[in-house]
Write a structure and sequence with these properties.
It is a single chain. The longest helix is centred in the first third of the chain and has 34 residues. Helix 2 packs antiparallel against helix 9. The radius of gyration is 22 Å and the shape is globular. Helix content is 68%, strand content 0%. The chain is mostly helical and 471 residues long. The protein has a single domain, classed as Hydantoin permease (Orthogonal Bundle). It comes from Acididesulfobacillus acetoxydans. It is found in: Membrane. Its main location: membrane. Belongs to the purine-cytosine permease (2.A.39) family.
């Protein structure tokens, strides 16, 4: 059978014979997605909780996040549609525009984060080759802008043919990142005794509370969840949709966040100064003397992570504008992300922008994911009806296209997150993200169960999400 289209829109269910992503493909995709500059940077940021605290939050926050990702990935595998299309049964057809806007915003933001880090590398490369000012030096802004333009061109190339090109760039990125991660780890361990790393403490004014580190790490990993169904909808079986992403994302996160933790602490011991603003891989690689080759790898591997980011942002846009072709949606968000990347160049500290961005993710997405999981696995008994996802007056139309119960619980979740972030016990302990999810899940279940228990059986002309037939 000849494939008539390369990429399906977010509302178009992928049929069985067009599902071409296997277990190893998904494993490589999620190793490559987390094996990136942002993962190193978050490792360097949570190093402010000291080695023990940073390792603790890495080992606790991330497996929980990737279990949540696997559950939503399973929904995508069953229904064959994109993640934001999967918010329609819970939020309503029009209500899904809210998480879609939030999602497009956050993936454009992640693209900007990785692009900015890559542009830092480009500035160091330009300093070595041409003597231009590097990041942190007067006059470096113009070089950073040039780096952003170069990265935007690379992004357009990487997403040129949809999920197929993502598979290719991820495979290349995995190999390069494994080599560079091992290299940096060896350099740190060779130069610094292990006991110094284990016992190092950040300066009092720059220490990060454990709960804040937990929220930062949880938000970092939860940021991937809205991208998962864009890939699991193309997978061949359940293990490829659930197990492979969990294994790949966790292994890569543990490794590269660990590299970031070691690099930041090692650099602080060598230089005598700990500055979270300089936790980016480019600055650390330069201070550790890894050379231009390491910087080139950082630039290339930013493209692998951003290929996933841009695909997810584009699919969110197409949920709002279904007539917009998938490739045009992805190209649009690529251009938008280039402009967003300019914000920390001229208007703010990159670290402050990054932390505020993570707080945004935790605050707005924790209740979204809680609602989606409760809706599918408990209220809807693991069955969505894909023909109703874009049908007015269907079971997912609710009240003029909006499920006000879900929207109200989402607002409550945002308020709860904001309140918990102000309570010292949560700041110093478990953070606000996962407690917010639990509260939102419980409230949504209580508020919605009576309606679904009394609902009539679906009519026979609807299809369930078990699998989508071939055309």
């Amino acid at each position: 059978m000849t494939e008539e289209r390369i990429e399906y829109g977010t509302l178009e269910p992928v049929p069985d014979d067009h599902r071409d992503i296997g277990f190893l493909d998904m494993l490589a995709t999620w190793i490559g997605a987390n094996g990136n500059n942002g993962t190193w940077f978050i490792g360097g940021v949570v190093a402010g909780a000291a080695f023990g605290g940073a390792v603790l939050v890495t080992l606790v926050a991330n497996p929980i996040a990737y279990l949540i990702m696997a559950l939503i990935g399973y929904i995508g595998f069953k229904a064959g549609v994109g993640t934001m299309a999967l918010t329609r049964p819970s939020f309503g057809i029009r209500g899904s525009y809210l998480p879609s806007v939030l999602n497009a915003t956050q993936f454009i933001g992640w693209t900007a984060v990785n692009t900015f880090i890559a542009s830092i590398s480009i500035s160091f490369i330009a300093a070595e080759a041409f003597g231009w000012p590097a990041y942190g030096q007067p006059g470096a802004s113009k070089v950073l802008v040039l780096g952003i333009l170069i990265m935007s061109v690379l992004h357009l190339i990487s997403v040129a043919v949809g999920h197929h090109s993502v598979k290719i760039v991820e495979r290349i990125g995995v190999v390069l990142l494994l080599i560079l991660g091992m290299w940096e780890s060896v350099v740190v361990i060779q130069h610094i005794p292990l006991h110094e790393i284990l016992t190092w403490q950040p300066p009092a004014g720059k220490a990060m509370p454990l709960g804040s580190a937990m929220d930062a790490m949880a938000a970092f990993s939860l940021g991937w969840v809205p991208a998962i169904a864009e890939f699991t909808r193309y997978t061949k079986n359940k293990s490829s949709a659930m197990i492979a992403p969990m294994i790949g994302a966790n292994i890569s996160l543990f490794w590269f966040a660990g590299v970031g933790i070691l690099g930041a602490i090692g650099t602080a011991i060598i230089t005598g100064t700990f500055d979270p603003n300089n936790s980016d891989p480019s600055t650390i690689a330069t201070k550790l003397g890894l050379g231009v080759l390491a910087l080139v790898v950082i630039v290339l591997t930013s493209t692998t992570a951003n290929a996933v980011n841009l695909m997810a942002a584009g699919m969110s846009l197409s949920n709002i504008f279904p007539k917009l072709k998938a490739k045009h949606a992805v190209w649009s968000v690529t251009v938008i992300s280039a402009f967003v990347t300019l914000v920390p160049v001229f208007l703010a500290s990159f670290l402050n922008t990054f932390i505020a961005f993570l707080d945004y993710i935790g605050m707005v997405f924790a209740p979204v994911f809680a609602i989606m999981i409760i809706d599918f696995f408990t209220l809807k008994k693991r069955k969505y009806h894909v023909r109703d996802l874009d049908r007015r007056e269907s079971r997912y139309w609710f009240s003029n296209g909006v499920n006000w119960t879900a929207l109200g619980v989402w607002v409550l979740g945002v308020v709860v997150y904001f309140i918990l972030k102000q309570i010292p016990w949560f700041i110093a302990g478990i953070g606000a993200t996962y407690p917010t999810m639990l509260i939102a899940a419980l409230v949504y279940w209580i508020a919605s169960r009576n309606r679904f228990l009394s609902a009539t059986n679906p009519s026979s002309d609807h299809v369930s999400s078990d699998r989508v037939p071939s055309p």
